[in-house]
Amino acid sequence: MRVLIVEDDPILQDSLMRAMRAAGYAIDLAGDGDLALGLLRGGGFDLVILDLGLPKVDGLQVLRQARANGCRTPMIILTARDGIEDRVKGLDLGADDYLAKPFSLVELEARVRALLRRGQGGMPLVSCGSLTYDTVGRRASMGDTAIELSLREISVLEALLARLGKVVSKDQLIETLCGYGEEVSANAIEVYVHRLRKKLEPAGVTIRTLRGLGYLMDKM
Ligand code: CA
After folding, report:
1. C-alpha of residue 70 to centroid of ligand 1, in Å
2. How far is the CA of 15 from the centre of ligand 1 (A)?
3. How far is ligand 1, taken at its centre, from the CA of residue 67, in Å?
4. What is the DSSP string of 97-148?
5. Are the beta carbons of 103 and 79 closer than 8 angstroms?
6. CATH number at residue 77
7. Which among 138, 142, 168, 181 could bridge 203 via Cys, Cβ 3.0 to 4.6 Å?
8. Last residue within a domain, chosen from 71, 87, 119
9. CA of 53 to the centre of ligand 1 (A)
């Protein structure tokens, strides 16, 4: 899952990036509205956290322009505590949710999960073989037994489950895992897939490697 954070305040930038990274999302950052619009044109984001008070192009303008350009990525706007008007305008312009500053990071994370879930068709539980994946709690299990996965493994699993029975290229997995300023090598992807494959095998799930194309997750 790839999240774009649009925020100009360095302290808030830092805490948002830490929280989202710790939750296992790949992060890109834009410090002004102009840069945000440029990144949004490139596409590939699953969610946007958008501050409204931004230099160059303000957040409401970013929202308006992005939606006018056909961008349908879910967006959470960050508004001032007393910014009721902005909140209403933002929602009218196509924001999916809002948080008033100051907000708790725990609440933000919950809103992010809820929006991402909606983006996946609102399916809280996804299954394959005897594997069940809870997209809300981000937990994998086989029957009553939890399958222990690292955050990176979870990110790979989510990407493969989102395209169950279809090929996901190595580049797509790299995209999923590496945010702004982070490097993930093709070798690292192979390692994560290898570990995931071992852990999911008992649940009757296979991850096939298609040379030169990528990976495909399916029931055995
Ligand atoms: Ca701001």
Report:
1. 25
2. 14
3. 21
4. EEEESS--HHHHHHHHHHHHHHHTTT-SEEEETTEEEETTTTEEEETTEEEP
5. no
6. 3.40.50.2300
7. 142
8. 119
9. 4
State the distance from the centre of ligand 1 to the C-alpha of 51, rounded, in angstroms: 6
User: Ligand 1 mean position to 9 CA, how many Å?
Assistant: 6
Range 189-208 average pLDDT? 95
- Give me ligand 1 centre to Cα 203, in Å: 47
Q: Which residues pair with 125 in a beta bridge?
A: 134
As a whole number, mean pLDDT of residues 89-99 equals: 93
Distance 42 CA to ligand 1 centre (A): 23
How open is the CA angle 166-110-117, to the nearest 5 degrees? Answer: 25
182 and 141 assigned to the same domain: yes
Distance 55 CA to ligand 1 centre (A): 8
Of the listed ranges 56-60, 77-81, 123-127, 163-167, the one predicted with least confidence: 123-127
CB 94 within 8 A of CB 48: no
Percent of the chain at pLDDT exceeding 70: 96
Same domain for 100 and 75: yes
Going from the Cα of 104 to the center of ligand 1, the distance in angstroms, rounded, reads 17
Q: What is the pLDDT of residue 144?
A: 87
Tell how far the Cα of 102 is from the centroid of ligand 1, in angstroms. 12
Tokens representing 21? 């990274």
- Answer yes or no: do 108 and 43 share one domain: yes
Full domain range(s) for residue 68: 2-119
Tell me which of 119, 139, 156 is where a domain ends.
Answer: 119
Q: Please tell me the predicted confidence (pLDDT) of residue 49.
A: 98
Q: What is the pLDDT of residue 180?
A: 45
Specify the number of domains making up the chain: 2
CATH of the domain at 142: 1.10.10.10
